[in-house]
Design goal:
The protein has about 250 residues and is α/β, with parallel strands linked by helices. It is built from seven helices and eleven strands. It has two domains: about 190 residues, 3-Layer(aba) Sandwich (Rossmann fold), CATH 3.40.50; about 50 residues, no CATH class. The chain is globular and about 50 Å long. The relative contact order is 0.14. Bound molecules: S-adenosylmethionine. The site of S-adenosylmethionine has 20 residues, from helix 1 and helix 3.
Length: about 250
């Protein structure tokens, strides 16, 4: 599938379809169990709690949480990902509520103990107002005292590890990544080229960059009363060695 001009990259099935084997490769899928171990410990979660996996992708975290007895609602805009996740849940006899929705619109008021947004599923929209809509909806979805967890590559981390060009082998091919910091460090523009089975696929896309402080400010402006910042789901400090920006915001 090729890029349609004039339509945002994140709204195109072609993007998610083309890069699914890279975004959700075996290694990434295998990481989910460990990530959920860490999340459970970080938040002190107990089976039976209600969790929304906002932008669930192919369901790697939703499935793992359902296996451990949590009540899961999994939301995504990409139908082919939801289909895969639904098939996997059915095969294991796991009950998960799947919802096909845009994160800017999804809202089930006062329903969840935790809303998750994992693996850089935030900051896609051109207008920052849309990021605020996502945060406001996440807050509305939470029960009193519930928590919203965001896990991103932040501005500080990208500044530290930035490389304008990279390549790496992927299952059945190679992947080239070109990166540019644009709009005065508010966004990163990526050009991904996947060469696989003698075919070349190329997409250019950008997303907003948040620093730890900027993301906390956004959450506080949207009336989250407490924000805690970590350098990973393991609860490590958000410092010069951090690999991720994880923010836990309390309603
Ligand atoms: C990088 S993937 C992360 C998936 C999942 N959280 C994980 O860790 O495996 C981003 C996901 O966001 C979904 N997505 C993109 N834009 C969206 C939107 N506006 N509303 C809901 N989901 C969206 C994509 O379909 C994709 O599944």
């Amino acid at each position: 599938m090729t890029e349609k001009k004039g339509q945002p990259w994140h709204e195109q099935d072609g993007f998610w379809d083309t890069f699914a084997p890279v975004i959700f490769d075996r290694q990434r899928r295998d990481l989910a169990a460990e990530e959920i171990d860490r999340l459970i410990e970080l938040l002190g979660l107990a089976p039976g709690q209600y969790i929304c996996d906002l932008c669930c992708g192919v369901g790697r975290h939703s499935l793992e949480l359902a296996r451990r007895g949590f009540a899961i609602t999994a939301v995504d805009r990409t139908e082919q990902y939801l289909d895969q996740a639904r098939d996997a849940a059915r095969a294991e006899g796991l009950e998960i509520q799947f919802v096909h929705a845009d994160m800017r619109d999804f809202c089930q008021p006062e329903s969840f103990d935790v809303v998750l947004n994992l693996f850089t599923s935030f900051g896609y929209f051109d207008a920052q107002r849309d990021d605020c809509r996502v945060v406001e909806n996440a807050r509305r979805c939470l029960k009193e005292d519930g928590r919203f967890v965001l896990d991103l590559m932040s501005k500080e981390i990208i500044a530290r590890v930035f490389r304008a060009r990279d390549w790496r082998p992927v299952e059945g091919g190679i992947m080239l990544e070109d990166r540019k910091i644009v709009d005065g460090w508010t966004r990163i523009e990526n050009c991904w080229t996947l060469i696989r089975e003698d075919r070349q696929h190329q997409w250019t896309f950008s997303h907003r960059l948040y620093s730890g402080a900027e993301l906390c400010r956004l959450l506080q402006d949207c009336r989250f009363r407490e924000t805690r910042v970590y350098g990973g789901l393991d609860g490590s400090p958000y410092d010069d060695k951090a690999e991720r920006l994880v923010v836990v915001a309390r309603k």
